[in-house]
Amino acid sequence: MEWWNEFVAWLTATDTRPVLFTAAVVAVSILVSALIAAAVTKAAVRRLIDQRDRDLKASAIAALVDASTEAAVWNSLSPQEQAVADRSAGQADIQLRLLPVKSAAVAANWAAHQLAEMKRNSATFGFELAPAVSEFRDRLVEWQARPSRTRKVFESDLERWKFENTASEKTLLADQDAWAARQHREQFTSTEPGEPAVAPAAFSRADTTTQKLIDDVAAMDVKRAAADDEADKKLA
């Protein structure tokens, strides 16, 4: 108990006040320095994480845009080139879905639908899909800049496509895909070594079934364009 009384007497002594003041200043300085250092470190780490996320998003979007250029001329690619393109597009799709962004899955679903449409239309439109590729690129770049705002547009498109495709249209699209795959397979299996491949668009007009399929697809495209215009007016 004696040592405690001595400590209290020393603590309350007038000569001890400068020492206590100096110790308090040093302690407060150390605490403030630690807080500032923690804040600076946290901000630096946050910037690195944001930069990494931006790089990942840019890489995934660049891969998807590259896949869209190949999807636009899908029927002119060899089976080996199609396999490589599908693999690259699949990797980009997975990379996009794994991004730490809430709307990443919605953007991936939208991009997958658009790529499938480009592949399907490449059998009839071919190199005329350049505007669709440009729109695909611009929409993804806009999503990278404003994910939350663009997500609503993507969700609206996906919902519209979901109700747009009736059973008959799905059957027609399946028939079109089967016809395009058959034509593509025959093109690359019947071509002699060294003989240039015939453009997939150069098919015979005399084939009644093929002509009917093309007419049905054209009519469906007109219907879809009208629906898109009506949806754009509602959004506006």
- SSE arrangement, N to C: HHHHHHHH
How many strands appear in the DSSP assignment? Answer: 0
Total DSSP helices = 8
Strand content: under 5%
Shape: rod-shaped
Helix content: over 70%
pLDDT < 50 runs, ≥5 residues = 191-211
The biggest sheet, with number of strands, parallel, antiparallel or mixed sense and barrel status, is: none
Label the structural class. mainly alpha
| Average residue pLDDT | 76
Distance from N terminus to C terminus (CA atoms, Å) equals: 84 Å
Radius of gyration, taken over Cα atoms and rounded to an integer in Å: 32 Å
Describe this structure in words.
- With 236 residues, this protein is mostly helical.
- 80% of the residues lie in helices and 0% in strands.
- It is built from eight helices and no strands.
- The protein has helices at 2-12, 17-71, 79-97, 104-121, 130-145, 147-164, 167-190, 208-235.
- Helix 2 (17-71) runs antiparallel to helix 3 (79-97).
- It is rod-shaped, with a radius of gyration of 32 Å.
- The termini are far apart.
- Residues 191-211 have low confidence and may be disordered.
